[in-house]
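Field log, afternoon session.

UNIT: design team B
ACTIVITY: writing a sequence onto a fixed backbone
BACKBONE:
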């Protein structure tokens, strides 16, 4: 699954888990704290994963080959 579609699939999974969390959190004085903590954790983990995944899928800097002869290496800079 090395494509941009993986980001959408995982997003749907995180949204589903957030909805489950919304309804499954224990009732009580700290219900809002539990909901917020779990949903924020899921969201931030997704964002970090998505940024890392997409940056590896489309790197900003092109890798340079070091095994070329000097006269051919000039075309890659």
């Amino acid at each position: 699954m090395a494509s941009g579609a993986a980001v959408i699939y995982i997003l749907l999974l995180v949204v589903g888990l957030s909805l489950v969390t919304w309804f499954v959190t224990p009732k009580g004085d700290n219900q809002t704290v539990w909901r917020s903590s779990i949903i924020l954790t899921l969201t931030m983990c997704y964002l970090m994963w998505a940024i890392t995944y997409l940056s590896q899928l489309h790197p900003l800097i092109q890798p340079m080959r070091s095994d070329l002869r000097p006269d051919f290496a000039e075309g890659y800079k």
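LOG NOTE: Residues 21 and 38 are 7 Å apart (CA to CA).
NEXT ACTIVITY: expression trials, pending approval
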